């Protein structure tokens, strides 16, 4: 598939068509014991999460973190942050691992199911645009991706991981 075809495919194809087994990280069976909404658990177990470079998303599904009397489950790391999902609600945030971070926490998605979909779409968009010629339309395509993310998840704003990835691209 040509890069711009892959870009379009990544925005509109069913999630089953976007998963790339060579970069897919599936959760361990123990994830079923996490206190998360059923839709989130189903998404993690069906599609997992992609390893994404150069944004350095490294899924792990491996730890319980307690913070401010709340329980979070670590889904992986992203650069210098733990990507976590909140017990009971399933909302997804990033917690910086740097003591000097100017933004110690940031928003990612309103649910784990939305994270799974957005991460796989980002994997395809990022892969396609890195293979395509770089021009002014590249930024328009990135903006189009972000608009799609916001349509699917209205909790995502300009203070989110996805905005940071688009702006930092």
List the defining traits of the structure above.
24% strand, 5 helices, 169 residues, 5-stranded antiparallel sheet, two-stranded antiparallel ribbon, SUKH-4 immunity protein of toxin-antitoxin system, alpha+beta, SUKH-4
Sum this structure up briefly:
The strands form 2 sheets. The protein has a 5-stranded antiparallel beta sheet with strand order 3-4-5-6-7. The protein has 169 residues and is of the alpha+beta class. 34% of the residues are buried.
Secondary-structure blueprint of this entry?
Blueprint: H1 3-12, E1 24-25, H2 38-47, E2 49-50, E3 57-67, E4 70-78, E5 81-86, E6 92-96, E7 105-109, H3 112-131, H4 136-152, H5 161-168
Antiparallel strand pairs: 1-2, 3-4, 4-5, 5-6, 6-7
Helix pairs in contact: 1-3, 2-3, 3-4
Task: Write up what this structure looks like.
The protein is α+β, with helices and mostly antiparallel strands. The protein has one domain. It contains five helices and seven strands, in the order αβαββββββααα. It has helices at 3-12, 38-47, 112-131, 136-152, 161-168; strands at 24-25, 49-50, 57-67, 70-78, 81-86, 92-96, 105-109. The strands form two sheets. The protein has a five-stranded antiparallel beta sheet. Strands 1-2 form a two-stranded antiparallel ribbon. The two termini are 22 Å apart. The relative contact order is 0.16.
């Amino acid at each position: 598939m040509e890069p711009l075809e892959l870009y379009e495919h990544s925005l509109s194809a069913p999630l089953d068509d976007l998963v790339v087994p060579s970069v897919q990280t599936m959760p361990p069976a123990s994830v079923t014991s996490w206190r998360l909404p059923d839709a989130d658990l189903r998404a993690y177990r069906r599609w997992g999460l992609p390893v994404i470079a150069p944004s350095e998303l490294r899924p792990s599904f491996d730890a319980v973190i307690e913070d401010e009397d709340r329980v979070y489950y670590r889904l992986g790391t992203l650069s210098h942050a733990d990507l976590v999902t909140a017990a009971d609600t399933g909302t997804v945030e990033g917690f910086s691992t740097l003591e000097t971070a100017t933004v110690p926490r940031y928003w990612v998605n309103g649910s784990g199911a939305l994270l799974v979909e957005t991460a796989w779409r980002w994997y395809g968009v990022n892969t396609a645009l890195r293979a395509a010629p770089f021009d002014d339309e590249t930024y328009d395509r990135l903006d189009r991706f972000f608009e799609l993310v916001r349509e699917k998840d209205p909790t995502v704003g300009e203070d989110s991981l996805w905005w940071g990835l688009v702006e930092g691209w």
